[in-house]
Structures are given as C-alpha cells and as structure tokens.
Amino acid sequence: MFNLSALLSYVLVSTFTPGPNNIMSMTNGTNFGYKKTLKFVLGATAGIALIMLLCGYLNLFLFKLLPNIKLSIEVFSSAYIIYLAIKILKSNSNPNAINDYSISTFKSGMLMQFMNPKTILYSITVTSIFIIPYYKLSIILYLFAIFLALVGFISMSCWTLFGVLFQKILSRHRKLFNIVMASLLVYCALSVPDFKLLIHLFI
Questions:
Q1: Which residue in 13, 16, 81, 161 could disulfide with 189, CB within 3.0 to 4.6 Å?
Q2: Rounded distance, CA 30 to CA 79, Å?
Q3: Domain map (residue ranges) of the chain
Q4: Where are the transmembrane segments (predicted)?
C-alpha cells in the first residue's frame, strides 16, 4: 500500500537538509543575490525533474545490469563537487571572482544534477521504493517528477533567501563563509560510499 506520509517525510528530510544544491544556492544567494541565483535554481529544478523521469523509466535496471556504472557515477560526481568547492575557495584570493556568474546559470544548475550524487541516489530511492511498486502510468511519473522538482525549488529558494538575508553579515566574513561552504561540499563528496571506499584503497 502506498505510504504518503513516509514519502513526504523522506522527501522533506532529503530535500531541505544540506547538500550540493542547497549549499550552492546559499553561496550564490550571498554572492549574487536572489535574482541572479534564480537561474541556477530553475536549472537545478529542471534537472531534478528530468532525473526523476529517467529513474522512473529505467529504475535500477542499469545498476543491476552494470554494477560498475554506480562506482563510475559516484566517483565522477564526487570529483565534480570537489571542483565546485575549489571554485568557491578561489573567490577568496581573487576579488574579481565574485563577478563570475558561471556557477549561477541555468545551464550550470541543470548540469550539476547529473553529477550530484545526492540528487541521483535520492531519485533512485524515491522512484524504486515509493513510486514504481505502486504506479506504472507515465502520467503518474510526470506528476511525481513535477511535484518533487517543485519541492526542490522551494528548498533551494529558502537556502538562497537565507544567503540573501544574511548577505551583509556573511559579506563581512566572506572568506570564512566560503571556507565553510567549500568544506561542506567536500564533506558531501567524501560521504558518497563508493568514493570513500576508493580513497581507502589509495590511503
């Protein structure tokens, strides 16, 4: 039987807790304001909806057929998130970097979802546990994808507004703020199970 309360609980906890999307949204909100960050948020929202649909149709087929693809995706995704962390840190030493909106565009927001392990694993979990076992119609998958993407939009908007509201305070401590945000992104990357396993193999 479909458990709506369990789905909503999982969605809210997964969506509103710190992750690459929310951290990037707050960082961009602090540095560029809500209006310029909105493009990133909309791009991320579109990316979430698209990944939800892909996971709904493919479910865990690829991961069962090709187990190694999971490791490849997670390692590549983690490396990309670490790259974003480095880009945030670089803005400390380069005053002009704050005017570089390349990490706050629709394209960057959308593409990031395909390299965001939290979005990918979240989408796989939601579709395989809460949706596919109960609903098979395409229209239902589309409705769920839109709903879950909207929840993501609200979450990222809240984090962006938090960055905007505390912009003056955070601006005075921009170096520390960027270090904390970059550290959180690195933590997100290192928290991916297979990436942690790979690190242990080399250390």
A1: 81
A2: 24
A3: 4-202
A4: 40-63, 119-135, 141-164, 176-193
Tell me the H-state helices in the chain: 4-16, 20-32, 34-58, 61-65, 68-93, 106-113, 117-125, 138-165, 167-172, 174-190, 193-202
pTM over 0.70: yes
- The residue among 68 and 22 whose pLDDT is bigger is 22
How far apart CA 113 and CA 29 sit, in angstroms, is 18
Is residue 198 classed as helix, strand or coil in its secondary structure? helix
CA distance 128 to 54: 12
The overall average pLDDT reported for the chain is 79
Helices 138-165/4-16 angle, 10° precision: 40
Contact by Cβ (8 Å): 82, 182: no
| Confidence at residue 95, expressed as pLDDT on a 0 to 100 scale | 43
Q: Which helix (H) or strand (E) holds 191?
A: none
Q: Percentage of the chain surpassing pLDDT 70?
A: 75
